[in-house]
Amino acid sequence: MTGEAVNPKAYPLADAQLTITILDLVQQASNYKQLKKGANEATKTLNRGISEFVVMAADTEPLEILLHLPLLAEDKNVPYVFVPSKQALGRACGVTRPVIACSVTTNEGSQLKSQIQQLKVCTVLIKYYFPFKMNKDAC
User: Fold this and answer.
1) Which residues belong to any copy of the Ribosomal protein eL8/eL30/eS12/Gadd45 domain (predicted)?
2) Domain total for the chain?
3) CATH number, domain at 58?
4) What would the pLDDT profile of 15-38 be if each residue is shown by its tens digit?
């Protein structure tokens, strides 16, 4: 998507089809005001316990500036996933600048609840199940 290479430390990395689904949901979450943009705000949502899942850009340079997020997300039992492009993530977030991380937040009466739950299941499956099985049609 962009000229920068994807870092091998960026795991789990969404494939092309799942990336489109993730970015679509991020865009909808932005419209419903259920999105926090940037690594610092994603960290805050994780610490406050209001994050549903975290999306990070795999072409971040240096990647180490957001590698604290997977550790924090694992501590809080929040699924996370990497997408290949920070520019595409920024567009999905509704800004013109690249975004290296974002967090979709909770909202009880949200119309996105079922989509968020489905995507959470897919991110968990990618991380734990798909490295061993090559059939990704479940998502």
Assistant:
1) 23-111
2) 1
3) 3.30.1330.30
4) 899 999 999 999 999 999 999 999
Tell me what the mean pLDDT of segment 48-77 comes to.
95
Distance CA(81)–CA(74), nearest Å, equals: 12
Range of the domain at 52: 16-135
CB proximity list for 129: less than 8 A, separation 6 or greater = none
* Backbone φ and ψ of 126, nearest 5°: -60, -40
- CA 28, distance to chain mean position in Å, is 13
CA–CA distance, 6 with 4 (Å, rounded to integer) = 7
- 7, part of any domain: no
Which whole number is the average pLDDT over 40-64? 96
3 within domain boundaries? no
**Amino acid identity, position 80:** Y
Q: Where are the alpha helices (DSSP H) in 6-134?
A: 16-31, 39-48, 68-75, 86-92, 113-128
Q: Is residue 8 part of a domain?
A: no
- Domain-located, residue 106: yes
Q: What share of the chain is helix, strand, coil (3-state, %, to 5)?
A: 45, 15, 40
The three-class DSSP label of residue 41 is: helix
